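User: Fold both of these, please.

Assistant: Here is the first one.
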Amino acid sequence: MIKVLEGYNGINHGKIIDVIERKGRSFGDTRKGEQRRYEVSYKGKWHVVFHLPACFDEIAGDCISIK
């Protein structure tokens, strides 16, 4: 379950506008020292999935941010 946030910028928590249930695709070459990250398609655009800790209450977990 990935939460779609609108208006999240690191300081402002924004609001949850949608919840999607799909698996993202991974990218990043660990052989070159890059961190493996995931991205998911939402309305035709790819967004990087990030994880928010439990201190963020209702928006904690896997999220993407749209503008």
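And the second sequence with its predicted structure:
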Amino acid sequence: MISPSETEQLSESGPAALPGRPQALASALASKIKILSLCCVYPNPSEPSLGLFVRSRLQHLGELADVKVIAPLAAFDYSRWRAVRSIRRSVPKDRTDGNLEVLQPAWFYPPLGGWLNPLFLFSRLRRLAVHLRRDFPFHIIDAHFGYPDGIAAALLARCTRSPFSVTLRGNELMHARRKLRRAALGWALRRADAIIAVSESLRRFAISLGAEPEKVKTIPNGVESRIYFPRNRVQCRVKLGLPAGGRFVLSAGALIERKGHHRVMEALKSLAEEGCTACLLIAGGPGREGSFVKELHQLPAKLNMQRRVRFFGEVSPERMAELMSAADVLCLASSREGWPNVVHEAMACGTPVVASNVGGVPEMIPSDHFGFVVPPGDPVALAAALRSALENSWDRAAIAAWAHSRSWQQVGREVLWTLCQAVAAGRHAEEQQR
């Protein structure tokens, strides 16, 4: 995680990477650049908790630049509850979200479209992007995931003659397991003018697919300090209806198999057999990756843990912060992540974390002063780490201070400079070819 002083050094040293004319171009662009962002998981009235990390970055970027967002919505949602349901009735085609104008066109994709889905997305957005270019002459297209957003952005950039950037957040590793998707993703990354990876592991992944190393920047996510900060633990427990003297483990995230809530439950079951009386709090609602809700709600009875597991459902960020402050430890037993914001947010509340060694977790928990990192899919190691975390005496103030060293304001500045560099480098190359 980058400290405030390191962020300032980055801002100061950034122009040196573009000497002469490119540096002047990037500096001039910083005050007037127009950015067209593309993200298929931007929050909407139907799914307000979706992609909050994307919203946070764009809101702070929007304070520094002119940003317009295209947030395509599937005409039909095939994933939630394994049913086809229209969501267009509850979501307007365009709206204002804070300082951002958000366009929400419907797009259709077949449930088994696979590598073709980016093409469906591109075909739906092509006319819109060309039209926007006339009224909003954007300097760069900013895609927030590699698949399908980044591939579609690469195609849109060609037809609008614009540079484009791609942010890698973790789901790209899953899509890269499919041969055709991996090829399409590599094609887009090799053509991107800038690639932002939220962790060093994703930076290496981009380079492995052929991206130019100098175009790949690691910019981790930030934390909303006005929401996630240490609260009085006893007061939070009273407010949540929890006994003040109990011991609690929090598992937070969508109720999907990948998030590993069931693994945390099984780990606490093994600790209960050793006499540990800790209870599990689960916060999260249905996710887009296939419902695992029924299985999770049935598991406490199967493990004879009914009295030690409590489901809170999908909660607001403010209530999540209260849960984090109330908990003794947060546990993230995911099998795959990019930069898991829940880890960063829990630490900002002063709560230690036990998490799987996936994505950016080792960068977020660099020592045992902040929590423990365990191998993914290792139930023995997970249970042992939870036991130690519950028995340790933690310096919660130090944990919070570490997490608060990385803000969304810093992220906004770093992203802005990266995009300005990409546009300036492209313009300089055009000037040299004339």
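The domain at 4-222+407-433 is CATH 3.40.50.2000 (Rossmann fold).
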